[in-house]
Amino acid sequence: MASSLTCAGVIWAFLSFLCAAASCVGFFMPYWLLGSQLEKSVSFGTFRRCSYPVRDESRQMTVMVEQCGRYASFQAIPSAEWRICTVVTGLGCGLLLLVALTALMGCCVSELISRTVGRVAGGIQFLGG
What we know:
Layout lengths: L6 H22 L4 E5 L2 E5 L3 E9 L4 E10 L9 H27 L8 H14 L1
Antiparallel strand pairs: 1-2, 2-3, 3-4
Subcellular location: Membrane
Protein name: LHPL6 protein
InterPro entries: LHFPL
């Protein structure tokens, strides 16, 4: 296989892919904040939550749902700040994956990545991070 990358470029491509994968896993996991509520362990991230309180109208009390899940809609995310964080982090993960996969393709295809493309990709990674 021909490559358009130097040895440093190949290392950059694989490290970029590992970092992008770690960022995406962190984005999708609901363990950003951990705590307890109603004597139950709770956790949530930007758009997922585990063990959350729900109002049970039949018993007229609040009960804990002990399962993980996404918010029902984008507007159900608790605050505007968390909504912004969800969008910004999601876009960052998308940019990081785009650059990483392009760099990995550069390991297999000759003349795919030039010096200018590498610099632009580094800038995009900076923005994505």
